[in-house]
Predict the 3D structure of the following.
Amino acid sequence: MIKSYLGSKDFFKPKRNFRFKKYIPLTIVILLAIFFIVQIALPIINKKTKTDYQLLKKNSGKVLGAATNLPLIDNILVLPIINNKNRPLIYAKSVILIDEQTFYPVYEKNSYEVLPIASLTKIMTAIVALEHYKLTDEMVVSGKAVSTIGSDIQLKPGEKLTFESLLQALLINSANDAAVTLAENYGSEEQFVQLMNNKAKLIGLNNTRFEDTVGLSPNNKSTVFDLAVLMSYAAKNPKILEIIKTRESSITSIDGKFTHQLKNSNRLIQPDEKYFIPEVIGGKTGFTFEAGHCLATITNKDGHILISVVLSTDENTITASAAETNKLLRWAFENVTWNS
């Protein structure tokens, strides 16, 4: 019976009970409804997109409220041009050179490796101290501060100095006794360190951690990228910028009994040094056996700001970080240009 049906002519005839005509009006209604919905929705979507773009443009370059000078949308195409793709051989463990306007990495090597940072810690010590003290505040030096090992200016127990004087000692001579004095006059070094860690989070330094104010602890760690952001942030403060470019100075206790000579340990700003570069504005040096020799600098090349950070040099010499940074900057001066 099945075979006879399949063989019949009726099997190949279209089914007359399936009528397309009755669905045509419904289809037209649906298409018209879709058309009107799109016409209404498009202006709303366009308005929201424009608003989102304006907010993005307004907020670009802001890291949790910190002005780190990240690129504005209008400037994002104004990137440095690297004319020579042959990078210099920098032997330090971790290195970065960034264009500060766009934060574009002109050169980088292990830029997110977390390493000990030695006295580059004092950049944050200075930032936090400036937020909590007035330049004229008077501070007393403790016995603990004087006994701190490492770089110092031989402060005396009971000596009184202004905050401004101690800030100069901190950033010019990298004085550990000055760093501890600044912290202790807030309350305790532990409390001050907590402020430093809070500030790191606020700026957006996700790979940075402090355990002391001087950099002696090997657990004071960061990355060269984080430190470049920190250096950019610090340079926005006129007082920090003024001090880090100072080659030599002296400070005197409030009673006039003690005077301390200061000389900047950054060889790149000392004209009598082999590695002197006149375009370098200033910077901060650091050294411990765990961290090796470290250096962060800020440089103005024809109106363009470059920030470099070198951590853990291959050579254990007092000029190692200056030599590596000098090599890096000289290469950049010859091979990096900007369209405007």
About this structure: Residues 73-337 form a domain with the Beta-lactamase fold (CATH 3.40.710.10).
